[in-house]
Amino acid sequence: MCGIVGAVAQRNITPILLEGLKRLEYRGYDSCGVALHMNGRLHRSRSTSRVADLQAQAGELDGFTGIAHTRWATHGAPASHNAHPHFSPNENTPDSARIALVHNGIIENHEQLRDELKGLGYVFQSQTDSEVIAHLVEHYYQGDLFEAVQQAVKRLHGAFAIAVFCRDEPHRVIGARQGSPLIVGVGQGENFLASDAMALAGITDQIIYLEEGDVVDLQLQKCWIVDHAGRRVEREVKTVHAHTGAAELGPYRHFMQKEIFEQPRAIGDTLEGVVGLTPELFGDKAEACFKEIDSLLILACGTSYYAGLTAKYWIESIAKIPVAVEIASEYRYRDSVPNPRSLVVTISQSGETADTLAALRHARGQGMPHTLTICNVSTSAMVRECVHAYITRAGVEVGVASTKAFTTQLAALFLLALSLAKVRGRLSAEEEAEHMRAMRHLPLAISAVLALEPQIIAWAEEFARKENALFLGRGLHYPIALEGALKLKEISYIHAEAYPAGELKHGPLALVTEEMPVVTIAPNDQLLEKLKSNMQEVRARGGQLYVFADVDSHISSGEGLHVIRMPEHYGALSPILHTVSLQLLAYHTALARGTDVDKPRNLAKSVTVE
């Protein structure tokens, strides 16, 4: 979602700020802007286009202190007057502005604060909750920006990461965070702020991860941090190598296409070092935890939630442990029955997903101390806050629609199922060896699925003319049908729904006509014959079936029945292979419809607001 970059230096920081924004474009945004301290005044440039446009119009900006931002609209439309940075006071004269501010997150009490500030004479030029913070800081400013920000943030309810600087205090930027990520980049005679270490790649690899409630004072030779109580604190400086090469498009048309084809490598990297199956894969103390727990609670959102649903099938089948899977944004607001012996598992690509973090904290607050995260970012809040972790190695994922992050999550969750089973004596040596052989074969098996692309392109040309689609799956593959429908709607804007195939006759069959494509996942498992009966229900109503069938499933193309044969039946790991085929279908359908594949409308990559 929104991105922040800030800097104090003894050189022109405009290129640093704008390059940082470009590195954050993958998060998704509707507008962008930059503000700098120049010749004793505040100067800014804002755009509702891409960062490249902002670079063109901000060419004359040159300063040593400044902030920049990409905004994903929440309060107020994606318009120039709502774009960050915000100034206060904000009359349209160059000398009037004293405070410049950028903000990630949502301020829940902004309406009350807005009314209060209007009563004090402040004029608002945007519909954002963020402008409230700028005026609040200006209201408290008495010559020390650090003190003003500390006072202002005490009034804020909700989630925020902010970066602020003042006309009257050159070479000083103040940052604060509560519920939204913010990091400090430590340099030599210069310091930086950002919402993501990637924004500072090539500038500094010395990173401080601010904690909840921290306020930081950045100056040329100083990085001073106080906690939520105003106490001076030291935070560890970590060396973080943010890889930028992975964010280059190379020969591919879109990042999503690149990331689909990177999955053999991503799976291989995620499994690298897994020589033997041990609980220590998930942390030094995981074995004792796995022996103590009696159930799992999986918390996740979106695509990660579907990974959790798939894991439920694996864990209950292999390890014989009951699993509950909850949408994180719902779990934290309902009355639930906490179980202190349950392992709370969070799944997140970024490790900063606001709803999942809040659900994790809620579970801990309910007396559930056993926590584990499956995450792609080792330095994220999710990893820092969980006792145990498995870091997937998908690499940077730029496309908003998750691909390699999802399949590496599935690989990690399958390892979790096996590890739990082994600790509890439910996995024989022969079964372990067979499962591990299958996992090591995954990269090659995925490559074989990718070779089906020409056949899938032919289907996509038909799908591109449709406005609705149904996806069907049974058992392990029902969550994969959900994921396939999500991918199609995310990037092609075709309305798509997924159902367990057995539910077809309980309502969804009413939607089936010859204009309704029905995508069916048909592995050769114990439910295949049941699934064939469901497919006949569709054909009898004139529906068009598009079936991904295993090579030995004995389903042949015919009138109203289109079949693509998967290279092989892959048993328990079959969901991973079928996921890849559905990703290709969504990608090529979106390509045929001419949508913005990597940056679909209204969506963001890293959902850091509630």
Describe the protein.
With 610 residues, this protein is of the alpha/beta class. The protein has 18 helices and 25 strands. An eight-stranded antiparallel β-sheet has the order 3-2-4-1-10-9-11-15, covered by helices on one side. It has a seven-stranded antiparallel β-sheet with strand order 5-6-7-8-12-13-14. Strands 17-16-18-19-20 form a five-stranded parallel β-sheet, with helices on both faces. The protein is globular. The model has no long low-confidence stretch (mean pLDDT 89).
Topology:
Elements: E1 3-8, H1 14-23, E2 31-38, E3 41-47, H2 51-57, E4 65-71, E5 86-88, E6 99-107, H3 110-119, H4 130-140, H5 145-153, E7 158-166, E8 172-178, E9 183-186, E10 191-194, E11 206-209, E12 215-219, E13 222-226, E14 232-233, E15 237-239, H6 255-261, H7 263-271, H8 286-292, E16 295-300, H9 302-319, E17 323-327, H10 328-331, E18 342-348, H11 354-365, E19 371-375, H12 381-385, E20 388-391, H13 404-423, H14 429-450, H15 453-463, E21 468-473, H16 478-492, E22 495-500, E23 517-522, H17 528-540, E24 544-549, E25 561-565, H18 574-593
Parallel strand pairs: 16-17, 16-18, 18-19, 19-20, 21-22, 21-23, 23-24, 24-25
Antiparallel strand pairs: 1-4, 1-10, 2-3, 2-4, 5-6, 6-7, 7-8, 8-12, 9-10, 9-11, 11-15, 12-13, 13-14
Helix pairs in contact: 1-2, 3-4, 4-5, 7-13, 7-14, 9-13, 9-16, 14-18, 15-18, 16-18
